[in-house]
Design goal:
Layout (H helix, E strand, L loop, with lengths): L28 H8 L19 H13 L11
């Protein structure tokens, strides 16, 4: 099983910033705001059209199945 890192919990994606936040981050909010003013919020997913989302009954069935799932420790590499 591969571990996939996903960027989240922020308004802007790290790749969209005009600087690398790991190397430099404006210590004053005003400077941060000025540097980030031109950055647009990334569209992550298109808005679904009518009929594209699963029915509520299907979601409930999937939730019940997933909430009852209890993985074995061997799935994580333990014996």
């Amino acid at each position: 099983m591969d571990f996939v890192v996903v960027w989240g919990s922020t308004l802007h994606h790290i790749d969209d910033m005009p600087y690398n936040p790991l190397e430099y981050f404006p210590p004053v909010y005003g400077n941060f705001r000025k540097k980030g003013a031109s950055v647009e919020v990334r569209t992550l997913l298109p808005t679904p059209k009518k009929g594209e989302l699963p029915l509520r009954s299907e979601l409930s069935k999937q939730f019940l199945q997933s909430s009852r799932y209890e993985p074995e420790l061997k799935e994580f590499g333990f014996t």
